[in-house]
Design goal:
Helix content: over 70%
Strand content: under 5%
Order of helices and strands: HHHHHHH
Oligomer: single chain
Length: 150
């Protein structure tokens, strides 16, 4: 089994689906990500599960440090995405009704500027597609780091 396939087997199967499920769970609660991000401690069952996950990753060729950094990075990515998404849901005082047009006014290309085109074509900077893209980028980068340790 190649190093890249090992990371895909481990991260793509249960971990990746759990990360998407975690995102959904956090989004379902108004301040879910904020509460998780500000948690001061973990319970014994959570700590044991975390150690089991690290051990499984080490079994797939990760060093303990790379396994820890990978899980930490992915967890922070999920929490960060949800924090931003939950923040965006609330309208802030002074938010223009057409935010894209207000942004375009600040750009030389106006509504034809590259940034506006990207937002228009992608549906914005948040959402399922953007989240999944970020996960794939993190996993691909981890696969490269894992290959260097082999």
């Amino acid at each position: 089994m190649t190093t890249k396939s090992a990371i895909w087997i481990h991260l793509r199967s249960p971990r990746l689906s759990r990360l998407s499920g975690c995102r959904d769970s956090l989004l379902a609660h108004r301040d879910g990500a904020r509460l998780v991000a500000n948690a001061a401690s973990l319970g014994p069952a959570t700590i044991r599960m975390f150690d089991e996950e690290l051990t499984a990753m080490v079994g797939h060729g990760f060093t303990p440090v790379l396994a820890l950094r990978t899980i930490t990075s992915l967890t922070r990515y999920v929490n960060g995405c949800v924090l931003q998404e939950q923040s965006e849901r609330r309208e802030h005082p002074g938010t223009p009704p057409d935010r894209l047009a207000a942004l375009a006014e600040q750009l030389d290309g106006g509504m034809e500027a590259t940034l506006i085109t990207a937002f228009r074509e992608s549906g914005g900077s948040f959402g399922e597609d953007a989240f999944e893209h970020g996960l794939r980028a993190l996993i691909n980068g981890t696969a490269i780091a894992l290959a260097r340790t082999a």
